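Re: the 99-residue chain
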Amino acid sequence: MNDILSKDIVKEWGLQSLPPDKQTDMVDRIGKMIYQAVLVKALDILSEKEQTEFDLLLDEDTTTPQEVLAFLQSKIPTFEQLVMEERNNIKQDLLVPIS
């Protein structure tokens, strides 16, 4: 996915014991979940004008996830914090111990 999203996920989530191809698959899946969570949160933060720009960007068939993240990063001053919060939220949701 994107370095912003996948950086240190293998180590942070304890995926080191998985074979490399499984690690890649898991990082990709986790990255996609974080990406989607960030998109949803961003809609609450963006102004109406920025939401319109965002919609136009998403409507383009050639737009990549990296371009979407770059747009959000340019519009949301606390973007890095937002990504980290969503990473932590998803990690907590997925790694809750079973009682």
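The radius of gyration is 15 Å.
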